[in-house]
Automatic annotation (TrEMBL):
Pfam families on file: HATPase_c
Gene Ontology molecular functions: phosphorelay sensor kinase activity
Upper classification of the organism: Bacteria, Pseudomonadati, Pseudomonadota, Alphaproteobacteria, Rhodobacterales
Catalytic activity: ATP + protein L-histidine = ADP + protein N-phospho-L-histidine
Name of the protein this chain belongs to: histidine kinase
Amino acid sequence: MLTSLSGRFLILTVIFVMLAEVLIFVPSIARYRLDYLTERLERAQIASLALLGADGMIPEEVELELLENAGVLNVVLRRDAARQLVLSSDLPRPISKTVDLRDPSPVTLITDALTRFFMPGGDIIRVIGEPAQGGGLQIEAALDTQPLHRAMLEYGLNILILSAVISAITAAFLFLAVRRLMVQPIKSLVGFMMRYAAAPEDARRIIEPRSRIRELHEAETALRDLQTELSTALRQKERLAQLGGAVAKIAHDLRNILTTTTLLSDRLESVEDPTVQRVAPKLVASLTRAVNLTEGTLAFGRAEEAPPRLEYLPALPFLNEICETEQLSVADGGIRIEADVPAAMALRADREQMHRVVGNLIRNARQAIQAAGAVGTIRVHASETPETWVICVEDDGPGLPPKARENLFEAFKGTVRKGGTGLGLAIAAELVRGHGGTIALERSDETGTVFRIELPRGSVG
């Protein structure tokens, strides 16, 4: 019950109702004590007036009966300047406290009431007040507090029982109301989500907003929009998966055909006909690009990269190795590839995957410089912050065209090289994401291009 929304609401309702009752009880018990003492003074005044009306000619037994009926031990009435002991009896104990009811403050009334409520009775107090109906200047009465204490306890018990009944009834009504107005609609919303999750392709399971509660209606509307978008995306993904499977089969067969055609085209170079000699190299180059495209498509389609095996790598020798490997691909000395890395720096990454990422960026930069027929330098910078390791690949080549920047990390769209597949950067971005990092184009203009890789130092907690 404590784990359900309605159960917790029920408990909170009981707690808050009881708290409200406590706040009501404190001034009410103070009012009860004041009324009790005021009533005793009024009874004492009536008894004293009866005695004064008889000119004091009443037996002692009747005088004691008047005191007993008034609930006091003695009465002092001031009708003029003099105080007059009208009714009296032997006090069992000395008077311990004087209570003045003529102009008490609310704080005093509450404090005295709570003290009397929690303190056992049995002591004698003197109560001072103003006589009712102008029957004198002042009236005083001594009384035993034990009956007062018992009356206050009885009153408090009645208040407690009444509070419990009110709390139970209020909590029950609120429980039923919350269950009807909030819990059941929420359960219905959860039911729609679970039924949709079981078969998201079934359009009949998309929720239709019906709640008249504004917040729940907004939630249902948001859920409907989300389910609609998700169903559309799932259908599109399924179609793309089927299309991808078909393209992979076609590309596989096409690669075999193109490979055979390329081998046959190579033999054309031995033909001495001038026209054949002129056309054959172009034909072979075109077939080679077609083979590369189909092989790249197949590789991307079946690529299932394993999770990175993270290890700490000394950054300087690791990045130097990549630069030296790519430098071997430069036929002449027109392009220099170098690393600028702190000697003591180490980064945490998968050696093979990060080699592919950085190597691909260097290779793209080299090919861009070579395609422009220029010379240049490619630098690999590395640095670290308390949160990340940063690797930047910078070149002073011609920069990327605007169209290539728009789809830079999308497969088959981000290529700028004639005959390229555009898969290199898409795969690199996927590998970096597997490390929990990011790869981005930081700058690209006529002065060169900078790619930035950021790898997180901490683990996901």
